Amino acid sequence: MKGFRLQGSHLLAGGLLALLFVGALLLTGPGKGESEGGTRGVPSTYSDAPEGLRALLLTCGELGIPASRWTRSLELLGAGPPALVLIAGDERIPDLAPVRAWVEGGGRLLIGDTAVARPGRLRRTLFEAFDLAVRPSPGGRAVLEPEVEGDGFPPGLFPPARVFDRAPGSDPLATVSGDADPAPWIVSIPLGRGEVIAVADGSFLTNDRLLASPACPVLAVRLLERVSRGEAVAFCESVHGYLEGGSPLGVVWAVLRSTPPGHFALQAGAAASLLLIAGARRFGRVRRAAEAPRRSEYEHVDAVARLLRRSGAWREVATLLAEGVRRRLDLPPSPRPPRPGGAPSDDLETKVASLASSGDPRRILAALDEIERVPGAAPEGGLASR
Q1: Separation of CA 282 from chain center
Q2: DSSP 235
Q3: pLDDT confidence of 190, banded at 50, 70, 90?
Q4: What single-letter DSSP state applies at residue 126?
Q5: What's this model's pTM, rounded to 2 decimal places?
Q6: Closest CA to 199 of 236, 246, 177, 167
Q7: C-alpha to C-alpha distances, 152 to 12, 174, 199, 219, nearest whole angstrom
Q8: In the 8-state DSSP scheme, what is residue 232?
Q9: Cα dihedral sign for 286, 292, 296, 301?
């Protein structure tokens, strides 16, 4: 079986798939919202989708309840408003330890879950940070406590899908009368110097429920009045990704990390990277840093000789050879350094200069060989023989 080789068509196909995925993310992005766009399936006050909370925020404004959005880190709640509304849906649940510490320091919190229960799906709930556990509702009619129901309450309240299975130290504000013992649906929990109002199923707070039944807005407003106590209330948007100072890369990473399409993209990217590494070929040999080749002494002499010969510098050639003869015969050096075009300084240079004018290297070598034939001054055979 031949090994897999990466072709140009493979790279082209991979690039097209990446472009299709990016286009799908852009086309299925957030819907339009009040200022920054809403997100489908997320209970955000920016969202006008059925699962959003924009209608609840507008209701607060119509009733004179001071409402704002909290888009800073949960760690900074100590410098924030006295009351906070935190409603989450199917998105990833952040660490709520800073929220609990803020409540213990005197904050008031309305917390609810609007996620749609799916069979066989394990999901961390909002209420674990407050020692609460939920279970499916046994079915039945929702019953409000007198302090919430007040003098009158309109009909049409939707039955909740979840109730609390464990709520230690809590006071029920609304229950479901399906079992022999009523199951708590909305509870109030004193925590330190603050208070938590927990709603096991907060779907009645969403846009579609508030518009579908007159009972849902009344219950929502009474819970808001209880948690605000006449002071400003803030809707937590940082849990939905609307965080001040958040970068686009952080938003992309959150999508890749917390959504099924993001998980698929990460897995496909890892597989593609392994495929590219396995099928890659080198485009060239690894070379060391460029280093000039070194020449031997003989190669250097040969290169200089070729250069002088091509340039016809016979005068310089003869002068250099004459200096070599002087060294071999232990003759004194030339009285002055030879200069091209200058007057000869002694008999040897005079003879060499006259021979150099002929431009015949054989005559130059023969004359130097004749001079070198002094007994005991040169090896047998003279310069010409070498």
Answers
A1: 28
A2: E
A3: very high
A4: G
A5: 0.55
A6: 167
A7: 68, 15, 21, 11
A8: -
A9: positive
